[in-house]
Design goal:
Number of strands of chain A: 0
Number of domains of chain A: 2
Largest sheet of chain A: none
Helix content of chain A: over 70%
Order of helices and strands of chain A: HHHHHHHHHHHHHHHHHHHHH
Oligomer: homodimer
Radius of gyration of chain A: 24 Å
CATH topology of the largest domain in chain A: Na+/H+ antiporter like fold
CATH class of the largest domain in chain A: Mainly Alpha
Strand content of chain A: under 5%
Chain lengths: ~500, ~500
């Protein structure tokens, strides 16, 4: 009881009351955003994130006008909040709900985008800014600063991508751009460490070291996520938690998902990669071992937590954009600020273009079948959708513009292409999946493996050479059914369906 | 992306890595507690909270042995964490799942316990400690300190009560002791403010002021909770959220529940009272306006969040007990510490006994029907179950001992009495409640109104005098059906059932 009284006494002291003020404000604003976003969702130009951004801007304006620019007092939330509370549910839910077959089918291209593409962007932005910034008189930056700038601006932002692209409408683009965002988290951590540790001269030795540490980080992060996911499946299956309590099952899934993230952080791995793969494994095994009410609960709880976090982030970005204190930190005259901003914007555009078009070219070169190739219009959309980055910290104004424009662009560019590549089959397999009200999910996945051509029995080694992904998938299925499922459970390939009860 | 890198760079600096260490440790420990608690739950002497306490003690021992007593570095969690994150879900869930009829039937007794009982305890502990502590040479305490000590130690701890008493087994005791804990939060806030503001001499004037501010705080906190709950019901009903998205409904319920708590904190009201009544209103109205999958999700999500918070708190108390830094703060020789501790323990025991037996005597005096009277054995259980207090902050060692002993005590004391007062009727009303797999909940509530005697039509004013609670309930039902439900929705009296799908 003394704690209660302590909190009362701290409330009475004005300085300590600030957290409660800002928590109340943010909770109220997020609630309002959800209601307004619901009312506006039929409007073409507005979605939940744009509503939240607009709300944040309006609130910040009101606060500035009423308190003479003391917005920093309200915005007490820091980076820890973002990394410890908001980001993990978003990425975990993305892994939990991702169309696994679509994702792994494009695994090689995703890695090309996430590694090679990011390195190309990094090179262009670092070298470009180093050359151009000299002309603006920014001589106090050293080589390390430019390399760090390149590393920061070369990676795409997964949270923005999730808001802008829709998994149902454009599954291929979604898995490419979102997958790239997940993979390049590892790339940027390695890049950043590399900048700090190695000499800046690129020698064959540093390239080897870089490749080695990337492979180390990537594989360890992935393995950690898979290990924690499998452990949760094994524990829940063996101890059969649901016999006693749904709450215990749900609590264990939430906690172990979060555990994978913080463990990765602790071991200086990529938490995003880890929690993403943990989500994939949990939806493939753990989710099938729990009771029906736990399935409904986990599916909606993860989606809800992710939804709240996303809304919160966009609201925060909107408020942050008007934080005068942060703008004052930018050194130099207004003219220099504009020049620097537009140079960076140009470099990001060029770097992204170079990376997307070259990786797409490589990928198309390796693919024979015309249906697997990435068309020019798709390349433009990937280029555009991946432009938004660092929304939360950099809070660059142009992010918002891009967000507004991407939805119509996707519609404009991809109408004919996407429809042809997403053939929906007759809903025949629903009897196999009692929980999946319509079999669309599985059916379309069965169709899309091998690019629309149904593969029943790949019987020769030629398969492995001509269609490596499908063949790997075939053997994986065999292994999964023979070894993994008897140990870890799991009923099928499908992700948790969109609405389990209807 | 820059934020990611920032977090990486902060991870590299050792001092900032501490939060990640402790978060990882706590998440891993809570997960382990849940698994071990599941395995041990058939054991008579162990429950989830005792497991968590034991775990905390063991972990603290290991940390002390390996790091030479630097446990304070790991325990970076502070009171804000407890009040902003852990307490709200526990109290809200208690309100959401409480047997409403049982609770309101005993509303007057609960308020007697929560107000009069707390004041009696407060008086005994304050005056007693002031008289006795002089003898131990503790002359540096002034009158205000003793009054604050009385206010701190006179209120019971709701979190402990929830763990020790079971709503299903002993509904009357549960609603009395838990309800008392909710109400006395308001009492203790008023007491604490009163100590700071008013003179310590008790005059008719200060009594009036105290009564006034208690009524103000109690009614405003309750009204705020009810208002936010009704608002959520109205918004969800009018805008029909479920048509589009279950996640939005669930997010809105979680956020508005939390909003009620932080708003109460902001207005210096009792957050516990507010969020408790918000939970009651949400389970009565809002919960009936949402889709079926949202119902399953909210019910289990609230229970899970509460479960995780409780486990975490007990784990934390276990670890906190071995925190050497805190023990060093206790001034004086070991002998004085023991004397002070045992004096306080004695005063708490006596104060609690005085308040429980006098309030029970008053309550029994007002009640004619022998079935409504609180028996001596029940009084002893109420006395005992309400002894645990301030678990988190005071971390008194005797809490744990009480926790261990209460479960068998309840079983010993209440076998005959409880069975007679909880008559279960034939499960006939299940057809009316498609979601309630067996109608036990409603049926037993129908039975228990008026103490086991079924009341169909109270037709005269005599009813109001002889059975005030039942009559108020009868008119409330009429009002609820005629006015409230058409506006705010709501399908029945029942709380969300224990397992909705089975």
């Amino acid at each position: 009881m003394s704690l209660k009284l302590d909190s009362v006494s701290t409330l009475l002291n004005e300085p300590d009351a600030a957290p409660v003020h800002s928590v109340t404000l943010f909770v109220a604003l997020v609630s309002a955003c959800i209601v307004i976003g619901h009312l506006l969702q039929k409007t073409r130009w507005m979605n939940q994130s744009v509503t939240a951004l607009a709300f944040g801007l309006c609130t910040a304006t009101v606060i500035i006008l009423t308190t003479n620019g003391k917005i920093s007092d309200i915005l007490l939330f820091d980076e820890d909040l973002f990394f410890i509370c908001l980001l993990p549910p978003i990425i975990f839910n993305a892994g939990f709900q991702v169309k696994k077959k679509q994702f792994f089918q494009n695994f090689i291209i995703i890695n090309l985008f996430g590694v090679v593409g990011t390195l190309i962007s990094f090179g262009i932005i670092s070298i470009g800014s180093a050359k151009l910034f000299m002309k603006f008189g920014l001589t106090f930056w050293d080589q390390g600063d430019f390399l760090a700038l390149g590393a920061i601006l070369s990676a795409t932002d997964t949270v923005c991508t999730l808001q802008v692209l829709n998994q149902e409408d454009t599954p291929l683009l979604y898995s490419l751009v979102f997958g790239e965002g997940v993979v390049n988290d590892a790339t940027s951590i390695v890049l950043f460490n590399a900048i700090q540790k190695f000499s800046v001269h690129v020698t064959p030795d540093t390239v080897m070291q870089f490749t080695g540490s990337f492979l180390y980080l990537f594989s360890l992060s992935t393995l950690l996520g898979i290990a924690v996911g499998l452990m949760s499946a094994y524990i829940i299956r063996k101890l059969y938690f649901g016999r006693h309590s749904t709450d215990r099952e749900v609590a264990l899934m939430i906690l172990m998902a979060y555990l994978s993230y913080v463990m990765a952080d602790l071991f200086q791995l990529s938490g995003i990669l880890t929690v993403f793969f943990c989500g994939i494994v949990m939806s493939h095994y753990t989710w099938h071992n729990i009771t029906e009410s736990s399935r409904v609960t986990t599916k909606h709880t993860f989606a809800t937590l992710s939804f709240i976090s996303e809304t919160f982030i966009f609201l925060y970005v909107g408020m942050d954009a008007l934080d005068m204190e942060k703008w004052k930190i930018v050194k130099g005259s207004p003219g220099t600020s504009v020049a620097v901003s537009s140079t960076l914007l140009g470099l990001v555009l060029v770097g992204r273009a170079a990376s997307v078009f070259s990786v797409s070219f490589l990928s198309n070169l390796a693919n024979d079948s015309p249906i697997d190739k990435i068309g020019f219009k798709q390349q433009v959309t990937i280029w555009w959708a991946g432009l938004m980055r660092g929304a939360v910290s950099v809070a660059l104004a142009y992010n918002k513009v891009f967000g507004l424009l991407t939805k119509p662009l996707v519609r404009l560019m991809l109408q004919p292409r996407e429809e042809s590549s997403e053939i929906s089959s007759p809903k025949s397999s629903s009897a196999l999946l009692p929980l999946l009200a319509n079999g669309q999910d599985l059916a379309s996945e069965l169709d899309s493996v091998g690019g629309g051509i149904s593969i029943r029995r790949p019987s020769s080694l030629t398969m492995l050479i001509t269609k490596p992904t499908s063949t790997v998938h075939y053997y994986w299925r065999k292994f999964d059914n023979a070894v993994m499922r008897p140990i870890f459970g799991g009923g099928g390939e499908e992700s948790p369906p969109n609405d389990i009860l209807h």
